[in-house]
What we know:
Blueprint: H1 2-22, E1 26-30, H2 34-40, E2 45-49, H3 50-72, H4 74-104, H5 106-111
Antiparallel strand pairs: 1-2
Amino acid sequence: MKYIRYAIWAVIAIALVAVALGNRQPVELTLLPEGLADIFAFNTGVTLPLYAVIFGGIVVGLLIGFLWEWMREHKHRAEARRQSREAHKLKREVKRLKGEKHGQDDVLALLE
Length: 112
C-alpha cells in the first residue's frame, strides 16, 4: 500500500514539473485594470513565470476552500463539544451514584 502511495505522489510530481517546464514564460500580473489604475493612480504589478501563477492560484483556492469548510463545520464541532462535556458530566454522576449505592445496600451491590 505504501508503494502505491509513493507511485501516486511520483506521478503528481512529474505532472507538476511538466506543467512548470511547459509554462516558463513570464506574465505580468496587475492589481487593477489599466483604466482603473489610471483613475486611482495606483498601478501595481509584478512579473512572474506562468507556472508560479498557476500553482499560486491552486494554493489560494485550496486555502479558501479549507477556510470555507472549517467555518461551515463550526456548528457541528460546537455541538460535538457540548455533547462530549455532557457525556463526561453524566459519567461522573453515574460513578458518584454507584459509589453512594454500594455503601448503602450490600445485596444490590452484589447484583451489579
